[in-house]
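pasting for the record
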Amino acid sequence: MPYTKRRRLVTSAVAVALGATTLAACGSSDDSGDAQSGPVSLTYWTWTPGMDKVVDLWNEGPGKKEQITVTVKKQASGDTLVTKILTAHKAGQGPDLVQAEYQALPTLVSNDALADISGEVGDVKGRFAEGVWQQATLGTDAVYAVPQDIGPMMFYYREDLFEKYGLDVPATWDEFAETARKLRKAAPDKDLTTFSANDSGLFAGLAQQAGAKWWSAEDGKWKVGVNDEATKKVAEFWGGLVKEGAIDNQPMYTPSWNKALNTGKQLAWVSAVWAPGTLTTAAPDTKGKWAMAPLPQWPGGENRTGSWGGSSTGVTTDSKHQDAAAKFAEWLNTDRDALNALAKEGGVYPASTSAQLSGAFTNPPEFFSNQPDFYTRAADIAETTAPAAWGPNVNVAYTTFKDAFGTAAKNRSDFTAALDTMQEETVTDLKKQGFEVAP
């Protein structure tokens, strides 16, 4: 199918949460011609550590019975992998399976790089939280990947220091702001937390929790809402705290940030389920002193959380054996042994709800041994994951966020102006790519 024609088709059907019911995909699994007879060899591009050991379980078990062998090809993650997948697809040399972050799926689908595997894996929908499954379907009846891991967001705090300064765990964002101010008065040298602009996923997850829909479709055109009311609310909230000096404005993942966590200068961190691993290396002296709670909620809103990270397993349109590849993708992300191995070898927090309280998740993370119900609470929080709304140029929005919000945080200037810059750059890029954009 000519590229320009394909672009028009997917523009009207691929937006997340757009309410579409079908997708005119050129390379769905119905077109694969997969009449498996005899051994099948598949290639899987992934960045997850230890994935080769997980795949060995398939090759020595179900795969041996099905005569389907999978070979792992380790790759870089993020935009680097997306670019490599698209380059390979244009040359007709893509792998059979790819690991893809949820926000990358619209880009891959809009370039006809992922197959619709709903006919092969659609019946596993009930194994995932609704908001998680939706990210793999892009709001349509098509299924472009099987969810693998997720990053539900949570609130982490120094339990001992909260007690020392008489602070309560905030249940709402208004309470969060008051807690920051109370701490500043009690201990001027301490920060409740920092606003960091060096990881776009954090802000995207906070906006998602607030109900933001950054991309959608309207009358066959993309509609960009990066500066919608929900996101403005989030930007104004954090920008206000930074401007008044109630919280810090330094970026995460730096030596000074590590030191602030390790010494107790920073008492809390809005993060995701994978935070214990980061704290283990960033703040080793604080083991057993942290606790986890649900994200503060917006008054009058639903009980929900956002996502920060997470990925899926997709089958490419280049695969000559899409049915076989879909079987592996389903096994990898729903089979008990596979999920336990993913947790053990790759440190993956599974998207499958049944795996979130078994195997590696029976006991709390070692760093949080003081909170026996860590994973029980995490599973409850994960179930409240809000729907996400990704589009075909998330990379542009994310890059602009780092630049615009990085400057705003450093200067303690207007966050809404930075948000408008994100909106403008995202719209401009979509038009440049040839997408039709609604005003």
